[in-house]
Amino acid sequence: MNDVFMNTYTRLPVTFSRGEGSWLYDINGKKYLDFGSGIAVNLLGHNYPPLVRAVTEQAAKYFHVCNYYLSDASVAFAEKLVEATEPAGIKNVFLANSGAEANEGACKLARKYSLLKYGKGRHTIVTLKGSFHGRTITTLSATGQEKFHKDFGPFTEGFLHIPGGDIATLEAALDEKKVAGLLIEAVQGESGIVPQSDEFITAAAKLCAERDILLMFDEIQCGIGRTGSFLAFEQYKDEKGNPIKADIVTLAKGLAGGIPAGAVLAGEKTRCVFSAGDHGSTFGGNPVAAAAGLVVLKTVNNPEFLADIVHKGDILMKALRSHHMIKEVRGRGLMIGFDIESDAWPFLQAGIARADNSKNQSGLLMLSAGAKTIRLLPAYTILDSEIDQGIEILSQLLCAG
Ligand SMILES: *Cc1c(COP(=O)(O)O)cnc(C)c1O
Fold first, then answer.
1. 129: which strand partners?
2. How far apart are the C-alpha atoms of 347 and 391, rounded to whole Å?
3. Distance (Å) from CA 98 to ligand 1 centroid
4. d(CA 224, CA 196)
5. SS (H, E, C) 226-260
6. Which residue's CA is minimally distant from atom 10 of ligand 1?
7. pTM for this prediction
8. Residues of the chain with pLDDT > 90: what percent?
């Protein structure tokens, strides 16, 4: 253990010093195939030349201006972000730095919308069991997993967790006298890669529209192309078969391809709710992050690029499904989870321990999501041949374990 850090993370025994595409190299020169992308962050891989160029060019111009002013980089990024999400109902954005910060902003936005229209007391935000929305006190409140809550109360009031998939419970929970918003991950990441059913999302959209409850999607992990559409919820339909429009969407993780960035996106109902002074963030819309984010948006929000994510995900899921030791594979696009018999953590350790230059052997970087689920979130730029290599290593690890 390196004791300069507080003890917040269980770490695997490896220290990285260089990356290239879907490969990371440790301080001893050992090589690892990256099937985790830093938890859906490095979605264009490591050291992606257009990203490196955009960041270095922006850094050579200026790093930061405060929010008294606009910056050309953040204007270009925000315009592209609205363009990419307009089909999903988005009209304008607030730029932040992280997922938790984006969700905090989303909760403030939902509460103010309801307060302005209906007065006090209609502030509850309904979220799902198994959800993950962040580590701040309020976003922990929103997170529907008890294991993250211990030791840190009292929490922000006004959150209600209900099971996903249960439409009767949803209907009862969405009390129009009390509830401002419903916050959902279309595909839950942290709790094991759990896509919500079509019926559930369709019902949620209908109930929210009827009761003027804001339909809010946390797309921090599943958005920005991860599932093969720019936003994951775009694959769901309303009861008439039309695309669903969101009232609020949050993004972060891969939004700037590895530079910290987050965003709160507002639809028609919420676009004018905040007034000057209501919300802010010193680093939100940072020009270097915005320059990186612009490259991500230009690259990912392209039908052919998105189709290729689906293609790569299909190769990977098909191979996993055909493996005799894997029972169930869940996921969409390059957001994939499967359960193993043994614990996930030693499996990740085995993926690291395998790296050995003398045997010309590389390691495999994977993620867990719960005690026995392996989560794979490769970069969108991964090559088919690298997917095959990863599958081969995975298969060896499964048979060895
Ligand atoms: C990672 C994550 C968050 C929190 O993001 P941070 O940048 O770590 O604050 C919130 N929601 C979802 C769905 C996430 O995957």
1. 144
2. 14
3. 7
4. 18
5. CCCCCCHHHHCECCCCCECCCCEEEECHHHHECEC
6. 133
7. 0.98
8. 97
